[in-house]
Write a structure and sequence with these properties.
By secondary structure, the chain is an alpha/beta fold. The protein has helices spanning 43-48, 75-88, 101-112, 128-137, 139-144, 146-150, 156-161, 165-171, 176-186, 191-202, 229-234, 254-257, 259-273, and strands at residues 6-8, 11-13, 15-18, 25-29, 52-56, 94-99, 117-123, 216-221, 243-248. Strand 8 (216-221), helix 11 (229-234) and strand 9 (243-248) form a beta-alpha-beta unit.
Length: 279
């Protein structure tokens, strides 16, 4: 049975459930400031290979799932959303793929629920332990991450970013059509604050990242403006299972800029890890 809109804890999430129902389940998690449509070039390639994908507009991005306050966006809530989504699909083990913030949630889900996650593939986003180490030891990564501190301010980041969003994203290499679509989505009432609350909520959770014990893949763009080479290199030390790394000559927006390469990495990871679709 397909999942339509998905409900958890009084929140309603908008979901795309596509591909063969009897295929291995792959949960696709978007990042900031995108939405589930960021997978529209990648997902059909996975469906052609026999995979079922479920792509939600995550907490803050779905119009019916925008709770107020940063405490509603801590990592434990974000991970619980993913596991509840797989439960709603009636699947015991599943594969999880994420980009940007979705990659961070994918790593955390795999680390905390190794009994449920058959494999994890992260696009652009190093393992959280690697990112934190790079922030402490690399001036380059600290420079790239300056905006994370700026977003902690109330209201000012929204005031600055809202009228400049599409232009800023396009200047960083995101196709203009995608940049305009994401900006229009986050122009909905409360949407941009909810999306930024992911950054604010991150400060409320500590010690939740575990080294990865399931088969993992990491795809990194060497021209990424936000996530640099030090964290990318350190990610290998954070995986205690089979690990595959792909380096691409692209920037941060890999699902939009390199869908075929991303799909190939996901398929390689999913098929080599085993089906993982027992219900």
């Amino acid at each position: 049975m397909r999942i339509g809109d998905f409900e958890r804890a009084g929140l309603r999430f908008e979901v795309d459930d596509e591909g063969p129902l009897d295929g291995p389940l792959v949960v696709l998690l978007h990042g900031f400031p995108t939405d589930r449509s960021s997978w529209r070039r990648v997902a059909p390639l996975l469906h052609d290979a026999g995979l079922r994908t479920i792509a939600p507009d995550q907490r803050g991005y779905s119009s019916g799932a925008r709770p107020r306050g940063r405490a509603a966006y801590t990592s434990d809530q974000l991970v619980a959303d993913v596991v509840a989504l797989a439960d709603a699909a009636g699947v015991g083990r599943f594969h999880v793929v994420g980009h940007d913030w979705g990659g961070g949630v994918a790593w955390l889900t795999a680390g905390q629920h190794a009994d449920r996650v058959a494999s994890v593939t992260s696009l652009s986003t190093p393992h959280p332990i690697a990112t934190n180490r790079a922030l402490r030891t690399s001036l380059d990564q600290a420079r790239r991450s300056w905006y994370m501190a700026a977003i902690q301010l109330p209201r000012v980041p929204e005031w600055w970013f809202a009228p400049r969003m599409a232009r800023t994203l396009a200047a960083d290499g995101l196709p203009a059509e995608d940049a305009q679509r994401y900006a229009a989505h986050l122009a909905e009432p409360g949407a941009l604050t909810a999306a930024m609350n992911w950054y604010r909520g991150a400060l409320l959770t500590r010690g939740v990242a575990h080294r990865c014990r399931v088969p993992a893949a990491f795809v990194w763009g060497e021209r990424d403006s936000y996530l640099g080479p030090k964290a990318a290199a350190l990610t290998a030390e954070c995986v205690l299972a089979d690990y595959r790394f792909t380096r691409l000559p692209h920037g941060h927006w890999l699902p939009e800029l390199a869908p075929r390469e991303c799909a190939a990495a996901i398929l390689d990871r999913v098929t080599s890890a085993g089906e993982g679709s027992a219900s």
